[in-house]
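Title: [Solved] Complex 1 LYR protein domain-containing protein 3D structure

Original question kept below for reference.
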Amino acid sequence: MPPMSGLQREVSALYRRALRMAARKDPAKRADWSTFVRYTFRTRAESVGPRDVGAIEYLMRQGRKQLELYEEESVRNCSVTSEMRAWDDAQRRRSPKDPQR
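Solution (posted by the thread starter after getting help):
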């Protein structure tokens, strides 16, 4: 696998930070936060092309601002739609060797 570009490293770091934030939330709500983070990243990644640097940078700025808000202790819950739950169930049923994952 070729080395990641600077932008790819930034996206990866933001994703890890978001997953760590989800892990710090109330244990009863962690699964919802994890689903929310994973779904949001995946759907937004699918909405832009890999070479559309401007759009990726915009989504990164937007994501950082949202994450700063979500990291506050006063934010305890997130809204997970039935579409998000269905997507999460489908992702969990896939085998780890599935190339589309």
